[in-house]
């Protein structure tokens, strides 16, 4: 049974691990800007943000970040076309079996958000935001209701 749990966890993390490996393989290519924030750094960022939070809105925004474990950002908007195409192709292969939560288009530009939702729809786990110029991989869990509350506050 323990092996099943470990293999299930590994399968869920596999796309993120493979995306981080892919990003790392492009880090020396001109035009690729890569930021990878691991668990320790993420904890320090959250602690510093909590200390600086001085309003209820700030604290609610921080609550959304509470379940985040790792963040990888790849900006390849300035990369040479052959390298961009290669990165896009490989990233799309990695994400091909993932669940698309949302897709938005603005002309030729598309934003796809991949992730896993809990059975009750209240939690979103392991988000990947992917465009033609950038990839953001977020490991962890986000409370969907808290995001909704933040959106409502921003609109008022």
Q: Assign an overall shape.
A: globular
- Computed over alpha carbons, the radius of gyration is 17 Å
| Main sheet strand line-up | 1-2-6-5-4-3
Largest sheet: 6 strands, antiparallel
SSE pattern, N- to C-terminal: HEHHEHEEEEH
Catalogue the unreliable spans.
Answer: 1-12
Task: Tell how many strands the DSSP assignment holds.
Answer: 6
Separate helix tally: 5
Percent range for β-strand residues: 25-35%
Tell me what the structure shows:
- With 156 residues, the protein is α+β, with helices and mostly antiparallel strands.
- Helices cover 48% and strands 30% of the residues.
- The chain has helices spanning 2-25, 39-52, 56-65, 81-95, 144-155; strands at 33-37, 68-75, 100-106, 109-117, 123-130, 134-143.
- Strand 5 (123-130) and strand 6 form a beta hairpin.
- The protein is globular and about 45 Å long.
- The termini are far apart.
- Residues 1-12 have low confidence and may be disordered.
Question: Descriptors for this entry?
Answer:
5 helices, 156 residues, single chain, six-stranded antiparallel beta sheet
Record the SSE blueprint.
Elements: H1 2-25, E1 33-37, H2 39-52, H3 56-65, E2 68-75, H4 81-95, E3 100-106, E4 109-117, E5 123-130, E6 134-143, H5 144-155
Antiparallel strand pairs: 1-2, 2-6, 3-4, 4-5, 5-6
The gist of it:
The protein contains 5 helices and 6 strands, in the order αβααβαββββα.
